[in-house]
Amino acid sequence: MALVEKYCDGPINILLVGHNPSQASWDSGHYFSNPSNLFWRLMRESELIPEHFVGVCDDQMVTELSFGFTDVIRVPGSDASKINRMDFIEQRDEFYNRISVNASRINIYPRVIAFIGKRQFAQLFDPPLKSTKFGIQSKVPKSLPIESEIWVLPSSSGRAAMKWTDRLKPYQNLSNRMQNAFPVRNIE
User: Fold this and answer.
1) Mean of per-residue pLDDT scores for the chain
2) Per-residue pLDDT averaged across 135-152, rounded?
3) C-alpha span between 174 and 182 (Å, rounded)
4) Domain coordinates of the chain in residue numbers?
5) What proportion of the chain, given as a percentage, has pLDDT over 70?
6) Fold observed for domain 14-180
7) Rounded Cα distance, 146 and 106, in Å
8) If DSSP codes are grouped into helix, strand and coil, which group holds residue 16?
């Protein structure tokens, strides 16, 4: 099995962009399915997804919450350090094309594009950004063909050394932004 990009049929609330799929994700067909990855815990604790979404629930997020999933680099592997600058340069245009084609298909850009990790966002610039802060971005690559709010969130990899509260806070900030900017309205 190979991991395919996942998009909902209508407007995307958040397009989640990983670095590259782990071998576990590639093999299972589900994003962030490596057992050491903290993504699902971050999503639940930040309230970006409801608590009752259990386990690896990317398909459920696509169909019920209008999320999308992709990676900048479409080559599986569990050691991101093996991906170099040339890999990003070679795959950057294809990444832009994939998200543009999906936006054209539904005639609207995602509300938010959230990069799960700094590196893949920084590598989209020429030259790459030397530093990036977590949260909403005011500077975006000139060649990015999307008019969406851009966020950078901490890596969810279990290998990334970070205090839990520092890792969780940007996810909570995005959750607050989504609730305030795009509130869910109950039908009575």
Assistant:
1) 88
2) 90
3) 11
4) 14-180
5) 95
6) Uracil-DNA Glycosylase, subunit E (3.40.470)
7) 13
8) strand
DSSP line for the chain: -----B--SS--SEEEEESS--HHHHHHTSTT-STT--HHHHHHHTTSS-TT--SS-HHHHHHHH-EEEEESS----S-GGG--HHHHHHHHHHHHHHHHHHHHHHTS--SEEEEESHHHHHTTSSSPPS---SEE-S---TT----SEEEEE----TTS---HHHHHHHHHHHHHHHHHHS------
pLDDT value at position 182?
A: 62
Tell me which DSSP letter residue 36 carries. T
Tokens 């930040």 belong to residue: 46
Which residues are registered as beta bridge partners of 68?
A: 15
Q: What does the pLDDT read at residue 2?
A: 66
Residue 8 reports pLDDT greater than 90: no
The letter for the amino acid at 168 is L
Name residue 76's amino acid.
Answer: P
Question: Strands 14-18 and 67-71, how do they pair?
Answer: parallel
The owner of tokens 């294809």 is 94
Classified as helix, coil or strand, 56 is coil
For residue 185, what pLDDT is reported?
A: 41
> How far apart (Å, rounded) are the C-alpha atoms in residues 87 and 83?
6
The residue written with tokens 């084609």 in the block is 101
